[in-house]
Amino acid sequence: MISQPYHLYVERSDASKNMARYYAMSIEPNLFGDVCLLRNWGRIGTKGQMMVHHFRREEEAVLLFLDLLKRKRARGYRPKTIRRNSLL
C-alpha cells in the first residue's frame, strides 16, 4: 500500500524554439502488490510516450521519483500555472 500520493505534472515551453513539452509521473500500486512508477512525456496536446518501472518497495520508487524530479527541474520544467482571468 502506498503511504502517500505521489503525482507530478510539469511543463517546459519556449515559443522561440517551438517547444511545448510535458512530463508527468505518479507512483501507484499494481494488482500483484508491487509498486509502479508511471512516467508519461511528450508534446503538449499529444498522447506522448509512457514507461512503467516496477519495484518491490515504495522507497525505491520514491528515490527514482525524486531523482527524475530533480533532473526535470534542472532542465527547466515547471508546474503548470493557471491564470485567474481564464477561469472567469
Primary descriptors:
5 strands, 5-stranded antiparallel beta sheet, 2 helices, 88 residues
Task: Explain this structure.
The model has no long low-confidence stretch (mean pLDDT 90). By secondary structure, this protein is an alpha+beta fold. It is 24% helix and 43% strand. It has a five-stranded antiparallel β-sheet with strand order 4-3-2-1-5, with helices on one face. The protein has one domain: WGR domain (q64v53_bacfr protein fold), CATH 2.20.140.10.
Quick structural overview:
The protein contains two helices and five strands; from the N terminus they run ββββαβα.
Write out the strand line-up for the largest beta sheet, numbering strands in chain order: 4-3-2-1-5
Helical stretch tally: 2
Kindly report the average pLDDT value.
90
Query: Which sequence of SSEs, written as H and E, runs from N to C?
Result: EEEEHEH
Number of domains: 1
Q: What's the CATH architecture name?
A: Single Sheet
The end-to-end span amounts to: 39 Å
Instruction: State the low-pLDDT regions, or none.
Output: none
Radius of gyration, Cα only, in angstroms?
15 Å
